[in-house]
Each structure stands twice: as structure tokens, then as C-alpha cells.
UniProtKB/TrEMBL annotation:
Source organism of this protein record: Rhodococcus jostii
InterPro entries with a match to the protein in the record: MFS_dom, MFS_sugar_transport-like, MFS_trans_sf, Sugar_transporter_CS
Membrane-crossing segments per the record: 20-44, 56-77, 84-103, 109-132, 144-167, 173-191, 250-271, 286-308, 315-334, 340-362, 374-394, 400-426
Protein name in UniProt: MFS transporter
One Pfam match: Sugar_tr
Major facilitator superfamily (MFS) profile domain ranges (all copies): 20-430
């Protein structure tokens, strides 16, 4: 490594980085799977418990409210006690709450357990993404953080596949479906065992000997804390993300993240109902149209992961919001819109959303320093879920009141808010070290001051 290099930021991509990305992706996979499986489970759960519209809305929104609590609380906890312990503990909670869901006898029990499941899911966002971001080289940081979040869409698509094979389980199929996230939680838990603690976080807490051991474990005995720039030893404060110079960044993350997830979760949770309103019924709806929409979110992520390092974060976010606004507005603006155009509009929305939704974890991890990085991701997760929970709860009522086209127009308006906020607030952080993107000056001002050092000679 040269004198101008940075061991982590400038290291070549290694098998460790790839494994850590895969292990960290387990949380978003379970999130996408668990939030989508409820739409499939409701097919048998609704008649089994004779659910009211209010109960259906609460079941759909409970996990999103839980994510609000989990992200807001456990992001801060992760910054206080470390990434590694929380990286393991929240998978245990995910498995336990999923299994317990299979034994519910009343609607309130399902609502409670879906809420607790959401708490565990919300906790994993700041835990896994901050740990991963603090190990990744800057040239691959956006792409690998993004790939981790694209897996969310893979999990959502997998929920429909599991639902298809569970069709023959009869009126109690919902019990298996609600318990099924536990399978993926246990697999992820076993994979994460032995993951080292973030040396950046250890240094920020003054634990230099442990940071040195973590660096040597990952990069080799010839490296140590001397190969990293000094991390300021600063106490973690929950309120810091709401104070200058970070308040503007917190506002940006909260607005764009919320504007992305409100229509996304509404479409994912109620895709079968949306498509049914345009004449698509039965298996052709649930395992045809809905599955295709879910897969298109994954498809959109493929060019998105290339574009995030090619054109940058800012242009990708603004461009995708602009396309989404048009796609969601089309069904409401065309009189007597056909089912084909309606489906195509949802398809364009899915591809565009998939191409940029991963910026929800890229931006906050890049815009905040180590001592409050997980807190910032957690707050973005929490604030965004207020809107997504409200949207999911109100979606059945919007479908009745305004029809499918009107409901999507509401999504278009929300996306327009995200577009305007991104135009005025979105910075560019592509190719900039974490130390510079999280500095007190605006990230865009730092890029020219960040030379392109030689890569580390070994990692």
C-alpha cells in the first residue's frame, strides 16, 4: 500500500467482500419475502379468521410499523454496542417471531407478531449495511451495497414462488407461509457466524487493539490500524443526525426514502388486488401477473447496479423518480384504460423502482460518519416506514374509493415529491472515500480533493 492509499477504501475486491455482501443480503431477502408473503397468506387467512377490512389493513401495516421502531431504536443501539453482536441477534428474533406466527388463533396475535417481526427486520437495515459499508472498497461500494438491497426484490419474488407450491396445503396454508421466513433466517444466521467486527467502529470507540486484530484477520498480518486514517473517538449521540451539519442530509434521506417506499410497498402488498380490479383473477393473477411484477423489480436492479457507478447516485435517483411519476400517472389520466396498459404501467414502475431503490441504503451509509452511521440508516428506515405503513393501511380504502387508477395517481404524487427533493438536495458520492463523504462539508465539494490513489498491494 502506498502512502496515499487507504487500506479499506482502496483495497482490491476479495472473496471476503463478496461473502460479507452475500451474508448481509440475507436481511433484505427476508424483508422482501416476509412483506410479500403476507399478500399470499391473506388468501387463506382472511376466510379462516373472517377478517374485517380494518384487520386486513392492520396485518399488512403491522410489520412496517415494526420496521419504524426497529430501525429507529436499533440503529442507535448498533452505533453504541457494535455491529457484530446485533448482526447475529436480530436473525434469532426473526426466526422466533416467524415460527410463532404459525400458531396464532386470533387476528390480534398475528398483528402483534407481524409487528415484532418488523422490529427485527428494521434492526437489520442499519446493522448489516453499516458493517458492509465500512469494509467495502470505494470503487465497488455503491454496487455491492446496491446488490445487497436488490436481493430484497429477489425475496419478494420468492414469496410468490413459495406461495405457488403451498397452494395444496388447504385452508391452513397461511400458517406455513407466515412461518416460512424462519427458514431463511436460520440459514442467514449460520452464514453470519464468525463475521469480524468493523475496524472503523472499533477505532471510533478507542478500541485500537481489537481494531488491529480485525484488520489482520481480514487483510493479513502485515496490516494494522496504522494503515487506516485515524477515526475520531466521538461518543454516539442519537440527536446528532438532527443537528448541523447533518440535518440537511437527514431530511434528504427521509424524504426520498419515504417517497420510494410508499408506492413500492403498496404495490407489493396489494398487487393481486390491483390486477384483479382490471380483470386478472386466480392463478393467472397471483402466480402470473403478480410474480412477473415482482421479478421486474429484480430485472430493474441489474442496469441500476451498473448505472450507480457509471452515472452516479444523483442522476440515477432523479431519472428513476421521473420515470416512476409518468408510469403511475398513466392509468389515471387515460379514460377507460385497458388492462394491458395498466399492467405495462406497473411493469415500468417495477423496473424503474428496482433500478434505484437500493440507494436507500447507499446514500445514508455514505453521508454520515462511523459513530452515527447506523443511527442515520435506522432513522431513514424508521421515518420512511411511517409513510409506507400509512400507505399500506390506506391502500384497500383507496382502491374502493378511487379505483386502481386513482390509487396509483396518489403514488405518482408521492413520487413527484421525491423527485423535487432529489433535484434540490441529492449530492453525488460516487467514488469518494467514506471519510470524505461523511465530512462536515458537502460531499460534492470533497470529490475533487480526493485523489485517485494506488490500490493496496494486497488484501
Amino acid at each position: 500500500m502506498t502512502s496515499t492509499g487507504h487500506l479499506i477504501d482502496d483495497a482490491p475486491l476479495t472473496s471476503f467482500h463478496k461473502k460479507l455482501t452475500a451474508f448481509s443480503s440475507g436481511g433484505p431477502f427476508i424483508d422482501g419475502f416476509a412483506l410479500s408473503i403476507i399478500g399470499v397468506a391473506l388468501i387463506t387467512l382472511e376466510p379462516a379468521m373472517d377478517l374485517s377490512a380494518t384487520e386486513i389493513g392492520l396485518i399488512g401495516a403491522a410489520s412496517l410499523i415494526g420496521i419504524f421502531v426497529g430501525g429507529g431504536v436499533f440503529g442507535y443501539v448498533t452505533d453504541k454496542i457494535g455491529r457484530h453482536f446485533m448482526y447475529i441477534a436480530d436473525l434469532v428474533a426473526l426466526a422466533v417471531f416467524s415460527v410463532l406466527s404459525a400458531f396464532c388463533g386470533e387476528a390480534w396475535q398475528i398483528i402483534l407478531l407481524r409487528f415484532l417481526l418488523g422490529v427485527a427486520i428494521g434492526a437489520d437495515y442499519p446493522i448489516a449495511t453499516s458493517l458492509l459499508a465500512e469494509f467495502l472498497p470505494k470503487r465497488q461500494r455503491g454496487r455491492l451495497l446496491g446488490a445487497m438491497f436488490v436481493v430484497w426484490a429477489v425475496g419478494a419474488a420468492a414469496a410468490y414462488v413459495v406461495g405457488f407450491f403451498a397452494r395444496g396445503l388447504g385452508p391452513d396454508a397461511w400458517r406455513f407461509l407466515l412461518a416460512s421466513p424462519a427458514i431463511f433466517a436460520v440459514i442467514t444466521l449460520l452464514a453470519r457466524m464468525g463475521t469480524p467486527e468493523s475496524p472503523r467502529w472499533l477505532m471510533s470507540k478507542g478500541r485500537m487493539a481489537e481494531a488491529d486484530a480485525s484488520i489482520k484477520l481480514v487483510y493479513g498480518e502485515q496490516y494494522g490500524v496504522a494503515d487506516l486514517p485515524e477515526e475520531p473517538v466521538v461518543s454516539t449521540s442519537f440527536l446528532r443526525v438532527f443537528q448541523k451539519p447533518y440535518l440537511r442530509r437527514t431530511i434528504f434521506v427521509a424524504i426520498f426514502w419515504t417517497a420510494q417506499v410508499i408506492p413500492l410497498f403498496a404495490v407489493y402488498t396489494f398487487a393481486p388486488d390491483l390486477l384483479e380490479s382490471f380483470g386478472l383473477y386466480g392463478d393467472a393473477n397471483l402466480y402470473g401477473g403478480s410474480l412477473i411484477i415482482a421479478i421486474l423489480f429484480v430485472v430493474g436492479g441489474i442496469p441500476g447496479l451498473w448505472l450507480v457507478e457509471k452515472i452516479g447516485r444523483r442522476k440515477l435517483l432523479i431519472g428513476s423518480f421521473a420515470i416512476i411519476v409518468v408510469a403511475l400517472a398513466v392509468p389515471a389520466l387515460i379514460p377507460d384504460v385497458s388492462a394491458t396498459i395498466f399492467f405495462l404501467a406497473l411493469a415500468v414502475f417495477a423496473i424503474s423502482s428496482g433500478a434505484s431503490s437500493f440507494l436507500e441504503v447507499v446514500y445514508p451509509n455514505e453521508l454520515f460518519p462511523t459513530e452515527v452511521r447506523a443511527t442515520a440508516v435506522g432513522m431513514g428506515t424508521a421515518i420512511s416506514r411511517i409513510g409506507s405503513a400509512a400507505g399500506t393501511y390506506l391502500m384497500p380504502m383507496a382502491l374502493v374509493t378511487f379505483g386502481a387508477g386513482g390509487a396509483l395517481m396518489i403514488g405518482a404524487v408521492v413520487s413527484m415529491v421525491g423527485l423535487v427533493a432529489s433535484l434540490f438536495l441529492a449530492p453525488e458520492t460516487r467514488g469518494v472515500s467514506l471519510a470524505n463523504t461523511a465530512s462536515k462539508s458537502e460531499p460534492g465539494e470533497e470529490k475533487s480533493a480526493d485523489p485517485d490513489p494506488q490500490p493496496a498491494s494486497k488484501a
